[in-house]
Amino acid sequence: xRTVGMLLFRAMGxxxxxxxxxxxxxxxQVVSAGLKDPSVRVRAEAFRAMEGVxxxxxxKEQVTTYQKLIPLAVNSAQQIFKKGNVEEANPAxxxxxxxADSPVPVLEPYLVPLVKFLLEVSVKADNLAIAxxxxxxxxxxxxxxxxxxxxxQLVPDVLKVAFSFLVKPDDNPFLVDExxxxxTGVAMIAAMVESIPYKHLYRPCLQTSVKLIKGQSPHQRRxxxxxxxxxxxxxxxxxxxxxxQLLDASLGLLRDxxxxxxxxxxxxxxxxxxxxxxxxxxxxxxxxxxxxxxxxRQGExxxxxxRMTSALCAFVESLDxxxxxxxxxxxxxxxxxxxxxxxxxxxxxxxxxxxxxxxAAEEKFLPYLNDAMRAMVFFMSQTQDEMLELRAAATDCVxxxxxxxxxxAFGPMVARVLTLADQNFKLNFYALNxxxxxxxxxxxxxxxxxxxxxxxxxxxxxxxxxxSMDGVEIRAPSNDMSAFHREDAFENEDDLLRQMExxxxxxxxxxxxxxxxxxxxxAEFTGSGFLPFMPKTIEICKDCLEYPxxxxxxxxxxxxxxxxxxxxxxxxxxxxxxxxxxxxxxxxALPLVLEMMKLEPDKQCCAEAAEAATCAVKNFGMPxxxxxxxxxxEVLDILLQEKGPCQxxxxxxxxEKDEADHDEVLIDRVTDLLSAIAKASGPGFEPLxxxxxxxxxxxx
Length: 700
What we know:
By secondary structure, the chain is an all-alpha fold. The protein is 70% helix and 1% strand.
């Protein structure tokens, strides 16, 4: 009966949370009793009750009372765990993860002991799902409160646990979509590299990697390579110094007896090719030779071939034109063989290889154009479900070929390609839609102003994608949508928003991001042909300013920047005054740019908006400043005082004081804008200079 009672109490909290927290003391008494109950099932419902009401906490009193339950919840979870009931502790782990993601900072005083406890859980749990849940909590704290981890001297402990995950055996190391201990360990190391200063990580990561690479066990050797792959992006400058040794190790392990080690070597090479640039290009002869030899090896594991092809594509695409041209013939021979093979995954990878060669070789690709296009058109004509990923890859490849060989060579093929591209949208496959928008962007690059002939259709496709709600799911936390259909269900809009949850399928986000980036390319390459589409483009940018995913907002910043550049190309100032055509474009785009700088929660998006604002000031001078009124000064005030949403920090004052150095990319863009304003304003800059100087001094 106690279990049923607590279950009903939990359900009341989920459905009547706002009312429940008005009596927070009663709630705390009931949950406190549940957390101490001898029945594990009662405790589980108490954990879930805490999870259900946290989003309704409003007042300081409510938060303080709720926080007093956290030590009880931790103690209850520890008791369950010590009794060996690891899986029965899962509701507590889910609660802690939920609280870590909550905007209400209820966990703030208890983060360090919780991290210690969950590290213990992750090490001792035999169930990977439980261990992964515990590690997700630790990772969220690493990402949100890195200085707390550093000050508590937990970095070595977290690293030790992450390394232990990397060396764990797994039943099938070649299942791409399955969760594995290695993925959990790599995710943790990557999060630490991104969040914690390198002095705490670089040496232990490198030393452990070297030790493991020399290990007797294939699991150790795989783990050593995985560490290098995980730190390659974040520590790219440091790894340049030991690149020859890293390549010796990776290339040597391409011949390891165990295929999972060879797969890890391929992944490591891919990360080095992506991030240790341009230094790795100097090793092109030995790299390409080793990569092709691996692909030629008889009886090689299919996953090794797939990963090696990825690494080869990434490396070839990064090569200078003159260097890449040395390898066009052997690479096209190899990829031509692969594209005609039977293995679907290898055919898709071969299409990516042909794309990489085209990008790198440019006009030297012309002798292979007809054969390559024959294969790509064939793939783009396939409509079977199992062929759609290959069709999407071919669509991407065709766009890159067009941009590489130019309009004269590709012109006769445009009509056929556009017909197939139109048909892509009828197949209801996100990845195919995404690749079609990238194709359109590359065709705009290839054809230039001639692309304007097809703008009405393709611009319409992009707008339709951005306006679509496809892929968005709205739901109540309890999956009961009935309340959303009653007019009296919610007292106000805030109550509605708290009850509502939504998710956006990643495929839909990718499609929309590609669509808005395509619009940026249309504006960049079609010149005056894009003028009729600018009003609708500005309108859709306004609608997407608050889109939930930053990838789409990155595209918004890119489009607005291109519109401002186009305005200058088409309507440069005359006699120091802005022409009417420029006024119409800049008058629509610049306010959105400044609003983005003021309200954008993502630093990179904000920096891109600042770059667009700088472009407006440099190209149009005082007329642009006058058109914006006091908006420039307001935005600069906010960003230089680090009060923008993207600069917000939700932690203790001590955490804030110890935060890493100011975001260089954003502040550099802001100071670039300030310099442009100074140049445009002349002596009139003095009042703004006096206003911002105190804020500027702290960045020295």
